[in-house]
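Listing S7. Sequence submitted for prediction.
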Amino acid sequence: MKMFIGYVSLSGNTEEMANILKNTLLSKGCEVDMESLETVEVQSLLDYDCIFIGTYTWGDGDLPYEAEDFYHELLEYHLTGQNAACFGSGDHAYPNFCAAVDTISHQLIQCGCNVFPESLKIELDPQTEDKIRQCQQFAQSVYEWVLLKKEMNQRVKQYFL
C-alpha cells in the first residue's frame, strides 16, 4: 500500500509522531512518502491509499499558520473516497487540547475524504513508551482499516462483474 504523511511541527513533537507512524507503516510493507504540509500539492494526495495529516495546535486551539494554505487549498479539490487519518500534538495547559487536529479532520470530511473515526492526540512529545505505543497502535489501526476498505471494494467489484 502507498501511504502519505503530511505534517507541520514547531517543536518537533508532531514530526516525531510522523516518524513513528512512518516506521510502523514501513514495517507493514507500505511505501511511505512524508512531507511538510507547507510544500504539499493537494492534488497529489489522490495517488495514495491513505493520507495521514498531522498538526500541532497553536495558542488556544488555532491551526498553525504553516498549515493554513494547505487547509484552504483542500476545498479546491475533490478528494471524495480518499482515506485519511489525523494526528497531532498539543498541551493540556491550553483550553482546547489538539483542536487543530479536529479542524483538519473536519476540513478533510468537507472535501469528501473517508476519515478514520479516531484521531491521535499526544500531550507534548511522544517519547515515553506509552506514547510511542499509542502512535504505533494508531498506525496499525489505520493500516487495518484501509486494508478492510480495499477488501470490501474488491468484493463489491467482483459482485458486479
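Caption to Listing S7: primary sequence and predicted C-alpha cells for the chain studied. The longest strand covers residues 83-90. Residues 43 and 77 are 7 Å apart (CA to CA).
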